[in-house]
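User: Quick sanity check before I run a bigger batch. Here is a single chain. Can you write out its predicted 3D structure?
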Amino acid sequence: MQTSTLRHTVSALTLVSATAVAGLAQAQEAADPSILTPERVFSSPSLNGPVARGVSLSPDGQLVAFLRSREDDVDVLDLWAVSVDGGEPFKLIDARALVPDAGELSEAEKARRERMRISARGVVEYAWDQQGRYILAPLEGDIFLAEREGGAVRRLTETEADEIDAKVSPDGNYVSWVRDQDLVVYDLAGGREMAITTDGEGLITWATAEFIAQEEMDRDTGYWWSPDERYIALQRTDESTVDIVPRLDITGGGASVIEQRYPRAGRPNAVVDLYVHDRTTGERVKVDLGDNADIYLARVAWSVDGQTLYVQRQSRDQQTLDLMTVDPTTGRSQVILTQTSEAWVGLTHNFRPLADGRFIWSSEESGWRHLYLYDRDGTLIRPITTGDYAVKALDGVNLATGDVFFTASMRDGEEYPIEQQLFRASLNETVTPVEVTPRGGWWSASVNATGTAYVGNYTDLETPPQSALYRIDGTRVRWIEENRLDENHPFFPYVGRRQTPTFGTLESDGETLVWQMATPPGFDPSKTYPVVMQVYGGPSGGGVRNAWQASTTQLLTEAGYIVFRLDNRGEGERSTKFKQALYLTMGQPEIEDQVLGANYLRTLLFVDDDRIAAMGWSYGGFMTLHMLTEPEMGLAAAISGAPVTDWSLYDTHYTERFMSTPEANPEGYAASDVVDQLDQLTGRLLLMHGMADDNVIFENTTRVLDSLQGQSIPFETMLYPGQRHGIRGNERGLHQWRTYLDFLDRTIGSRSPHAD
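Assistant: Done. Predicted structure follows.
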């Protein structure tokens, strides 16, 4: 393994709170009310304060809706609203008033929520009709409709089955949902249901995104209304081709064998077909997706006039992405644009049809993801954005002015990974983007349909997540949740001991890596401290941000640890070269970069070289196992949660995107298999996993258990019955973090062999 040359540059200085308490000894005094404890982190109200989730502006621009945790139970969400003209927020739907005793969700709904990373109960999603007359809200498996005028709430379903993926039709005349694997449309005026499909059962499912689309393609729906309500495009999924992977679903009450249809790398996927249902005639036509059935139905969208269906078709190897136009009356299709890559073509939500037939789409052909304007036949008109930065999201368009709004981590035309802003470009010419939101933190935005206003969410190191309504020029209209960090804020008692992270950079193989570091309260650079390296490392958004830090980070600093995070190559929405560094070699360049980080830490006089540990979950669990077996890391301990240990056990779309198939890349798969490296553990291991995990299946961990036991290598294990890929609920979250802190204390903390 070749390690890159070390070079350190500091891009920001630590700003320690003026009220920070000196001396680590005080952190052990449980009676001190300023010391954050695990018990407080995992209790209500949330330490994040009143954070608005799922914020949206009504179609007429007069009302803002959002989800808010209940004060008496942070894991239950209610639906709230507030007028743009002023006044206090008011509750539209009280989840527990409507459904006081929420029962068990169906296994299908549990799986769907797991795919969407929804852990809360109550109102977890909602949708407006286009006129803004009411809001549709699924609640504990049934469908409720809240009327804007008067606030009346109408219950549309009350069945034993779960109604999932509920939508309001574009003109607000119908509500649709999936029940028992079939699509149902409800006529609001007539108060009656209409079955659009009737043969969904067993291995056949209608109008629902298949497992791989939900988990890896960021597509959680399987049907799409046309703007005029005439057509519904809907997918049909046949899972009979997918391998059965028996897994034990172990709970506190026993174990059952689940014969899960799980598409492992190199093995068959489900067969997905696309149809168009004509609501006026009741007829259904099949869309021509090509002769090759082994493809991915990546994205589906309608033209503004509803006369054309757009389909993005991705090849099985993910090196080709076609944009197709479809005649909804016949199902005939035509490829009008193709993107290719020697590694992979990434999927986005950046496709936007315009009223005049033109469309916006993004591409990485320049080496960075940028927006482009195309004519209706796929002819390129012009680039909308250019430069050495990546467009992360197309947020909105104002057709009257020609303004295009997008999100990026960029300053002055160059990428700036630790911050994010909303920018304005133009449909009419390629111009230098203009900053809509100010610099200095992390912004996300939801722009309204006309491009005249947006809901802005903001946070920085000193500011918990805030949300407000803004005019498109950046003028704030009103707060939605100011979430001011004052004496009334739940986190306020602990502010004095919160340490503001330091940011810096390292150079690796010609690429700039960003890192952040938080130190314990009363930090004394003349002393030495143990370090916890928090790691994810996989292909996704980076974790190093100028944003409010998780409360659990303060649990680690209160325990006396320096907390360090480095975003390695492959991690984050950056250049194609940066992202594709791990192509066919997962577990190699990422570890090289983490070695670089560990070597940098050892240059710091206040770091105890013998007391460095790593912790991570999912891909982070994969990383920590490899880091603990890499001699150059020299870790004293590692916590590995729900790790992938053999990529041939993981799913097709994710794994093959980065590693190809086991047959085509046997060397890469073999090198990434950590089981063959377990005899090289440099320190103590804590291995954790949910025993009902249907994403990274438990077999990944049992392979490690078996190998370590077979070699008589000591290690520790904590398993969670009934838990899937994430550990849900305050009680189990508290247990998880008590386990973390106890393990770290014994291996690198006050009870470790190398403690002072």
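The domain at 8-36+498-747 is CATH 3.40.50.1820 (Rossmann fold).

User: Great, the batch can go ahead then.
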